[in-house]
Write a structure and sequence with these properties.
The complex is a heterodimer of chains A (173) and B (338). Chain A has one domain: Rna Polymerase Sigma Factor, Chain: A (Orthogonal Bundle), CATH 1.10.1740.10. Chain A is 69% helix and 0% strand. Chain A is globular. By secondary structure, chain B is α+β, with helices and mostly antiparallel strands. Chain B is 28% helix and 32% strand. In chain B, strands 7-8-9-10-11-1-2-3-4-5-6-12 form a twelve-stranded mixed beta sheet, covered by helices on one side. The two termini of chain B are 39 Å apart. Classes of the chains: A mainly alpha (173), B alpha+beta (338). Chains A and B meet through α1, α2, α3, α4 and α5 of A and α1 and α2 of B.
C-alpha cells in the first residue's frame, strides 16, 4: 500500500496503519539512528521517540514527498538533539536506566551482523559532522542538496564533509 | 585499503535489526499515543481530509498550475517574433516584414517544470499550441504517456481563460483580467515587435538547431507578460530568458527556448519553479479548423471551484487574503518541521 494512503489512514487514527509504517521503515530508521548515535539502546530510544511523537499528532504530519525521507529526517533531528544533550554536563542520576550505557541485556538489544558492527564502530570514530553526512547520504538515501537544506549548510560544505569522511572510512574499514 | 565503491556499499548495507522486544516496546507506546490522541483529543485528528490539502494534492490542481503556467508561457511564447526589433540587420528586418503577415501558427513544445533547487522534474509535458491572432491561443498539454493532461483556451471573444482537465472531468473559467486582456489586445506580431524594439537583445550567432541552420537571439524581458500588480501573487514571474532561433533559409523562427523562474504563487502551488520550454515544429499560416478554438467542455464536467474551498480553508491556512480573478487566495502557512 502506498505511503500516502497509510499516512491518510494514520491521520484518522488507524492503528494498523501505524504498525505497517513501523514495520516498513523500522530497520532503516534504527540503522540511521545507530550510525548517528553509536549505541543500540540510544538508537532504539531515538526511533521510539520519533514514532511516539509521530503517533501523538497525526493531524500535524506534513509528509510532502517521501514518508521514508520524512522519518529519516525526524530520526536525524532527534539524534542530533540526543548528541547535544550528551555534551551537556551530566544530570543528577535518576531511577531511569541510562540509555547510553553499554548493552548487557540480551533481550532488549537490537541485532547487527559482524560487518554492520564494524561499520558502526568505524562511523563512531568520525567527527559528528562527517558521520551525519555519510549516514544521511548512504543510509538515509538523502541527496547532498537535501542534507544541505536540512542542515542549513552550503552544498560544498556537505560534499567536502562527505569526502573527508569517506576517505577516513577507507582506512578504518 | 578498500575502494570508495566498496566503502559506500558496505556502509550502505549496514543494518541494525530490531528484535521482538524492541518492536513491542515501540509499537505499544506509539499505539497508546495514537489511541490516547484519538480518544482524548479528537481535534488532533482532522475531521476529514483538509480541503486545501486535497486541492493541493489533487492532480487537477497540479495540472491547473501547469496549465496556468502554460498560459503565461503561451502569452510569452506565442510571439516567436519577439526579437525582431529591426536592429539586427537584414535577416530580422525581413523576418519582421514576413511575420507581420502571419495570422496563425502551430508548434510543439517540450516543457519541464522543476521545483527550484531540485534536479528531478516536477512535471514533464508535451505541448501542442495553436495560435490565431484573431481568435486566441489553444494549448494541449500531454503527459509522458501521451494522455491529455489539460487543454487551455485563451480567447479574445469573449475574453476569457478556460482550463479543461479531462482526467478529472473538471474545468475552470476565468475572465481575462484587464492586464491580460491588454496583452491580448497587443497580441499581434506588429505590437510585439514594437514592444521588443525597446528591449535588450543579444545576438547568439550562428548555430544548428533541430537540423536547421539558424541565427540565435537571446533576451531577458519579463515585461512582455505584464501581470497586474494585484494578481502577481497568483503567478509571480521572477525572470524570463528566451532564445529564438531564426532560420537562415527562411525568415521565420524555427525554434525557441524559454526559461521562466517564478516565486511562490497560488498557480505555482506555492512552489518556486523553474520552467524550461523548447519549441519546435513551427508551422506558419497553417489552416487551423475554427473548432479548435471552440471550448469543448463535455456536459458531465464540473467546475473546479477554488473560491469556496479557499474560503473554507481560510482558518486553516492562517494569514492574509487577497482578491483576484474572481476568487480569493490565502497564503499557506509554513509546514511544520518534525
Amino acid at each position: 500500500m502506498r505511503d500516502r494512503r497509510l499516512v491518510h489512514r494514520l491521520r484518522r487514527g488507524d492503528v494498523d496503519a501505524l504498525q505497517q509504517i513501523y514495520h516498513r521503515y523500522k530497520e532503516d530508521l534504527l540503522t540511521v539512528a545507530m550510525s548517528l548515535l553509536g549505541d543500540a539502546h540510544g538508537a532504539e530510544d531515538c526511533v521510539h521517540d520519533v514514532f511516539v511523537h509521530f503517533a501523538e499528532a497525526p493531524a500535524d504530519l506534513r509528509v510532502n514527498r517521501s514518508l521514508r525521507g520524512y522519518l529519516v529526517r525526524c530520526v536525524a533531528n532527534r539524534a542530533k538533539n540526543v548528541l547535544k544533550r550528551r555534551q551537556l554536563p551530566p544530570e543528577p542520576p535518576t531511577d531511569e536506566p541510562d540509555s547510553t550505557a553499554p548493552c548487557d541485556c540480551p533481550v532488549r538489544c537490537s541485532m547487527a551482523s559482524e560487518e554492520s558492527r564494524r561499520v558502526f564502530e568505524a562511523l563512531a570514530q568520525l567527527p559528528a559532522e562527517q558521520r551525519e553526512v555519510i549516514t544521511l547520504h548512504l543510509q538515509g538515501q538523502m541527496r547532498f542538496r537535501e542534507i544541505a537544506e536540512q542542515r542549513e549548510l552550503s552544498i560544498n560544505t556537505v560534499q567536502s564533509r562527505y569526502r573527508y569522511g569517506i576517505e577516513k572510512l577507507r582506512t578504518l574499514l | 585499503m578498500k575502494s570508495l565503491r566498496q566503502v559506500k556499499r558496505i556502509v550502505g548495507h549496514a543494518r541494525l535489526e530490531a528484535d521482538r522486544a524492541t518492536d513491542e516496546r515501540i509499537l505499544r507506546d506509539a499505539e497508546a499515543a495514537l489511541v490516547k490522541t484519538t480518544h482524548n483529543r479528537p481535534q488532533a485528528l482532522p475531521p476529514g481530509p483538509p480541503i486545501w490539502r486535497t486541492i493541493m494534492e489533487s492532480k487537477a490542481t497540479r495540472y491547473s498550475a501547469a496549465a496556468t503556467i502554460l498560459i503565461a508561457a503561451a502569452l510569452v511564447l506565442s510571439d516567436p517574433l519577439g526579437l525582431f526589433g529591426g536592429r539586427h540587420g537584414v535577416v530580422l528586418a525581413e523576418t519582421v516584414r514576413q511575420m507581420d503577415q502571419v495570422r496563425t501558427i502551430t508548434h510543439k513544445e517540450k516543457r519541464i517544470f522543476y521545483e527550484m533547487g531540485k534536479d528531478e522534474p516536477w512535471v514533464k509535458a508535451d505541448v501542442v499550441r495553436y495560435v490565431s491572432f484573431d481568435r486566441g491561443v489553444v494549448e494541449e498539454q500531454y503527459d509522458e504517456a501521451g494522455n491529455l493532461m489539460a487543454r487551455a483556451y485563451i480567447l479574445r471573444d469573449p475574453p476569457q481563460i478556460i482550463l479543461v482537465f479531462p482526467e478529472e472531468k473538471k474545468y475552470v473559467k476565468l475572465p481575462l483580467a484587464d492586464g491580460w486582456a491588454r496583452v491580448m489586445n497587443n497580441f499581434t506580431p506588429k505590437a510585439i515587435v514594437e514592444h521588443f524594439k525597446s528591449g535588450r537583445c543579444r545576438d547568439l550567432g550562428h548555430a544548428t538547431v533541430d537540423g536547421y541552420d539558424v541565427e540565435g537571439f537571446e533576451t531577458n524581458n519579463s515585461e512582455i507578460f505584464p501581470i497586474p500588480e494585484s494578481y502577481r501573487f497568483l503567478f509571480p514571474i521572477k525572470d524570463i530568458k528566451w532564445q529564438f532561433w531564426i532560420s537562415k533559409d527562411t525568415p521565420f523562427p524555427v525554434a525557441a527556448d524559454l526559461e521562466v523562474t517564478t516565486g511562490r504563487g497560488l498557480f505555482t502551488v506555492f512552489k518556486e519553479l523553474r520552467i524550461t520550454c523548447h519549441d519546435y515544429d513551427m508551422v506558419y499560416d497553417p489552416n487551423i479548423p475554427s473548432t479548435v478554438f471552440d471550448p469543448n467542455i463535455p456536459a458531465d464536467y464540473t467546475p473546479l471551484s477554488l473560491e469556496s474551498t479557499l474560503k473554507e480553508s481560510a482558518a486553516w491556512l492562517g494569514v492574509g487574503a487577497l482578491p483576484a480573478v474572481g476568487f480569493v487566495a490565502y497564503r499557506r502557512r509554513h509546514p511544520r518541521g518534525c
